[in-house]
Amino acid sequence: MAPKARKTGEPLEAKETLQAVIIADSYEDRFLPFTLERPRCLLTLANMPLIEYTCEWLASVGVEEVFVCSGNHTDQVETYLNNSRWTKDTSPFSLEVVRSTSTSVGDAMRDLDQKGLMKGDFICVYGDVIANIPFDAALKAHRARREKSKNAIMTMVLREAGDYHRTKDQHHRRCFVIDPETDRCIHYEQVRPRTSPRLNIPEEVLKDHVEIDMREDLIDCGIDIYTPDALAQWSDSFDWKLPRQDFVHGVLQDFETFGRTIHTYIVNEGYAARVNTLRAYDATTKDVVSRWAFPYCPDTNILADQSYQLQKGNLYKEDGVVLARSSTVSHRSVLGKATSIGEGSVITNSIIGRRCVIGRRVRVENAYIWDDARVGDDTVIETAVIANEASIGKKCHVKRGALVSYGVRIADGVTVEENTRITRFKRKRGYDNNEVCQGVTDPKVVGEGGEGFRLDLDEDEEYMYEAMLAGAQELNVTTDGDGISDFESGDEEDEYAHSREPTSRSGSFTSIASDESGETKRDHAKFHREASDSIFDGLQREQDPDHIQLELQAQRLTENAEDNQIRRAVAVAFSRRIANLIEGGRTAKEAVATAILPNQRLIKACVKEAGEQAEFLLFLQTDLVHRAQGSKVLLHVAFVLAGEDMVDGDGLEMWWEDPRSVATEELKKVRAETQPVVDQMAGESEDDDDEEEESDDE
Amino acid sequence: MPHATHPPSPGLQALVLCGPGLSLNTFTSTPSTLPKCLLPIANRPMVWYPLDWCHRMGIYDITLVTPADAAPPLEAVLRSHPVLTSLSGPRPEVLAPKGLEMTSGTAELLRLGEVQRVIKGDFVVLSCDFVSEVDGSRVLQQWMGLNPSLAASSSSRRKGGLAVYYPTYGREGISSKKDETDFVATVPLPKPNVMLPMGIEEVVMVMPTDTLNDTLDENKQALPIRQTLLAKHGNVKIRTKHRDAHVYFLPLWVKEFVARNEKFDSISEDVLGWWAKAGWQAGLAAKLGMDEVLAGKRSTDDEGANAGSVDEEEEVDATALSSTKSAPVAVRQSPQAFATRVRTSTAPPPRPKLAVPPLLAYMQPASPTQPLIRRIDTAPQLASISLHIARLPPSDPSPLAHEHKIHPSASIGQQTRISQEDCLIAENVTIGIRCNIKESVVGPNCEIGSNVRLTKCVLMDGVVVGDGVQMVGCIAGKRARVEGTSTTGAKGSEVEVDGAAVKGKGKGKQKATSQSGGEEDDKTKLTECEIAPFFVVEAGTEAKGETMKAFDPEGEIGGDGEEDVGDEEDAE
């Protein structure tokens, strides 16, 4: 509750300072690995940080006070803004960075409410919005409604798009049901294609309104006009996190009780997009370069030190670009200051930052190369993102959808496979999410002399995985027009057969943790992440296994998790711990012994019967597929488990014969070395039986 | 209305379905003498309205489809009724197919052999209870104009259909909450190239409200909407208070489509409902045999064209010829996804074999200034529309306005007041003296006694109203008889004397007489009653909200006890 905010929000005077809140943290992981080191709002789009676009638009709308809410990387945001023109005397608005420890938009809103900074109605946007839509009318409509009814607590500004728009998120289709007479949003549903084939319109919606519009063609870029009352709503419901799924949904549900209404304002001119996925990043960049988002184009030179000039075919060049005579830079490209391009190189449809050095005979297509990156001779870069200061060696091939993070070095002659993410940093496990630590270079990925390793998405984070897929999917599309139709849900078959899982890894997981609806899946994912983190943490600190067990039990009770989830969490935690030890320089054997032997009780507690043992091994196997020396680790683990009677012959055999454990080539490869152990153990158990029989005879 | 100019014939034929009219059964219980389509609306037989509407848009090839037992009276009226005979153009054919029962569904009707043989080209299906001020030719133009350009966007160029929906709300005096409604979901058409269609949208879902309620009950009070619909159409508008006007412009192939699908019962619910869904629900069109109907028809087309059928005219893609407008089709097919804002790659390429022709609809906006479209299938509707037409001055541009508010042949007694602006008095009506008639329609050959007060009443042909009767909001069927104070004579004159006295006094006096004298003297007072044809309402009956039919016990209950109470209330 925030009495302050309420009091101040009462009279709506004609002269009112227009305030705005920029939510600078996205609270999402969709831009990994880049967001490990930088906040999303500082990523550059067409060589300008995203937050600049947002601020520029707010300034054009006439905002007088801006609060930037930041959770992660606050220092960077603050430093950037303090050095930007927005904090200078000439800035059109006053700007203040609000530090908070929020982990969701909801937290940030509650923080704001508590601080009582908002004096009246205010605009709330994300730090990654690119828009040039006119706003006066929306604001006027909002105020007029507000005058009539105190209960109209929020207006969502939505941009009308066609049925298909490239910046639209294909994975979270948002359906707004609107009463066109009052512009009231009467129902909101977020639908995920293929998970829920139907959308349910409640009866009262149909009965109470003579005409309703079901809109799925709107781009929701999170531009909202809030009232202080709405802020108070956030405070009242401490568990709301997301502005749409939780807030809008919640308020609409309570309409009968409280009568609060949420309205929409549909804009049908101007540009509005949110850069919230890689796909959107790609699409929005193209829009900016193609001047759809005018005046936000490179040649507007919004930043003081920019000097872009537009040339034929939407080619933008800054001063001091060095182009070799035989190089070709074709349409829809942007080249930053002091970038040089070597002899015979071909740049198409790409954005290249400042001070980049592109070697000779390089081919760059649909790629994003940020500042200070280097690309060696004879390299090919397809639709990929190369971050600041990264360097790509000679004769490399960076394939579609690859993401190369800050400062990564790829050695000569290396091929970066599709959709790989290479980084130097990773999140510290078990600690605050914000902390990152340097990972261990994996020469298999970056080549000898390179720097960086492959960042695997946590396979359990479905949400994030999907986000990545969306990005990759779009990247696919850019060169392969036909590919897309497979994924789009236009086909009836797709809708019903929820079968298309693009990679083997995901495939194997759905087969194990199958039969779950999207909702429970996410819950499971959450539990899994938390549980495996805490076990891993315990293992790393070499805690007493009983202690770890206790903690696990507590988590299990709060999340109401099932046994197989526990097994999965334990398996993954062990696998991580072992990998971690190996990275620390141990051999596989030592690592397995160190990790498992003192903690036998932990495994025994969750693995009792043969079926459970098999499942545990399967989880372990699946996780080891992409860990260093996975096959060796698996061998030793199997050996130790069998040796210490944590797993018996039946369990091993069952696992070995399980079709899921040989579902893919990778899985087969990883378990190949374990063959002798299984043979031996299986043989033993048969021997045991024989012996028993014999003893019976006696 | 005179038909000074004949618009050129659009080459369509019309089927007017003269159905039973279940909700009007007070007046149509004997279809062999008085079928629904002959019930008068503002002194014209109901069937005149669709006929006139067709004529106004230039359709003269009209077939009236009716059950066999209603055919003779219909033909008789067509030959004899002055309003109908004055219609220009050839007289419509009456078709009474053998298998047609009063209970047959409309789609079932279309499947009948006789009807199938009659349909030779694109056709319009109308219901006989359709009353419209909207100029049909404008709707028709839209349909014809939209068809080639729409059909040309796909490889198989087939014509779509067009239905008409009107709002059941927002019109004072006519709109009633009890009106039947349909649930209809539509999507806007792609931006037009040449003209702005007036309120034409594409239908994607349609069902009567009853069916909607059933669906809601089945699904925990929620309406499930398939993802595929939203994936294809991002902007779906749902209307729950519009009603199907039962006017369908249909291309010839629909004849075959209906014939193939035996399970279709009604045009509005089944044919349109499935057709609308087939447009976006993949696989449905094939299931309904639409693809075969559309493809199969093609071979027979040639013969049809040779036979001079108007069905297949040269279809020119106007979009492609336009030099100012780029065809959206071309943009869509562009392989370079990034050049345009439209995400081309996500649009599933239309499957050529299953390009379902669009089902269009004219959705009339809800506004009191819009021309009227209504279906008359309940008695209150009949009354309210009759009264609406009665309110139209002769100078009104509405095609439904009557030339004479009070027909010259009507004889009206002295000191009788008839409010000209909202009454309609037909020919050969005799009205006694000191009557007061407001907001009423009096049919031909009615005899109205003296001292009669009629407010918001509709009297059909030959109704006899006795002296001193008061009627408010009543509908009286053909030749019904409402007895007054008494038969003419001494008592009648007595009443006249009473009436001559000061009004308030007169009332008091009458009350006194009613108390002292016999029941015979009581005034007949009817409020919101429906009186069946040929029914006789006895003198002194006082009733409210009743349906008076022969052998209907309710009709007899005049309620002696109630009379006094009613009188007293009135006096106060």
From TrEMBL, chain A:
Residue span(s) of domain W2 = 521-691
Q: Which keywords belong to this entry?
A: Cytoplasm, Initiation factor, Protein biosynthesis
Pfam families given for it?
Answer: LbH_EIF2B (PF25084), NTP_transferase (PF00483), W2 (PF02020)
Bias regions of kind Polar residues — which residues?
A: 504-514
Q: Where in the cell is it found?
A: Cytoplasm, Cytosol
Q: Which GO terms describe its molecular function?
A: guanyl-nucleotide exchange factor activity; translation initiation factor activity; translation initiation factor binding
PROSITE patterns according to UniProt: W2 (PS51363)
Which stretches does the entry tag as region Disordered?
A: 479-525, 667-698
Annotated GO CC locations: cytosol; eukaryotic translation initiation factor 2B complex
Q: Where is the composition biased (Acidic residues)?
A: 483-495, 684-698
Q: Which InterPro entries match?
A: ARM-type_fold, eIF-2B_epsilon_N, eIF2B_epsilon, LbH_EIF2B3/5, NTP_transferase_dom, Nucleotide-diphossugar_trans, W2_domain, W2_eIF2B_epsilon
Extract the CDD domains matched here. eIF-2B_epsilon_N, LbH_eIF2B_epsilon, W2_eIF2B_epsilon
Q: Which family does it belong to?
A: Belongs to the eIF-2B gamma/epsilon subunits family.
Subunit organization: Component of the translation initiation factor 2B (eIF2B) complex which is a heterodecamer of two sets of five different subunits: alpha, beta, gamma, delta and epsilon. Subunits alpha, beta and delta comprise a regulatory subcomplex and subunits epsilon and gamma comprise a catalytic subcomplex. Within the complex, the hexameric regulatory complex resides at the center, with the two heterodimeric catalytic subcomplexes bound on opposite sides.
Name under which the protein is recorded: Mannose-1-phosphate guanyltransferase
User: What species is given as this protein's source?
Assistant: Friedmanniomyces endolithicus
Automatic annotation (TrEMBL), chain B:
Q: Which residues form the Mannose-1-phosphate guanyltransferase C-terminal domain?
A: 420-486
The protein's GO terms of the molecular function aspect are:
guanyl-nucleotide exchange factor activity; translation initiation factor activity
Q: What is its main location?
A: cytoplasm
Gene3D superfamilies hit by this protein = Hexapeptide repeat proteins, Spore Coat Polysaccharide Biosynthesis Protein SpsA, Chain A
**Where is the protein situated, by its record's location annotation?**
Cytoplasm, Cytosol
Q: Where is the composition biased (Polar residues)?
A: 333-346
Q: Which InterPro entries match?
A: eIF2B_gamma (IPR051960), GMPPB_C (IPR056729), Nucleotide-diphossugar_trans (IPR029044), Trimer_LpxA-like_sf (IPR011004)
| Region annotated Disordered, chain positions | 321-351, 501-526, 542-572
* Pfam families, A to Z: GMPPB_C
A single Gene Ontology biological process assigned to it is: cytoplasmic translational initiation
Here the segments flagged for biased composition (Acidic residues) are 553-572
Could you tell me the keywords of this UniProt record?
A: Cytoplasm, Initiation factor, Protein biosynthesis
Q: Where is the composition biased (Basic and acidic residues)?
A: 542-552
Signal sequence annotation = none
The UniProt entry's GO CC annotations, sorted and at most eight, read: cytosol; eukaryotic translation initiation factor 2B complex
Instruction: Return the similarity comment.
Output: Belongs to the eIF-2B gamma/epsilon subunits family.
Q: How does it assemble?
A: Component of the translation initiation factor 2B (eIF2B) complex which is a heterodecamer of two sets of five different subunits: alpha, beta, gamma, delta and epsilon. Subunits alpha, beta and delta comprise a regulatory subcomplex and subunits epsilon and gamma comprise a catalytic subcomplex. Within the complex, the hexameric regulatory complex resides at the center, with the two heterodimeric catalytic subcomplexes bound on opposite sides.
Q: What is this protein called?
A: Translation initiation factor eIF2B subunit gamma
User: What does UniProt list as this organism's lineage?
Assistant: Eukaryota, Fungi, Dikarya, Ascomycota, Pezizomycotina
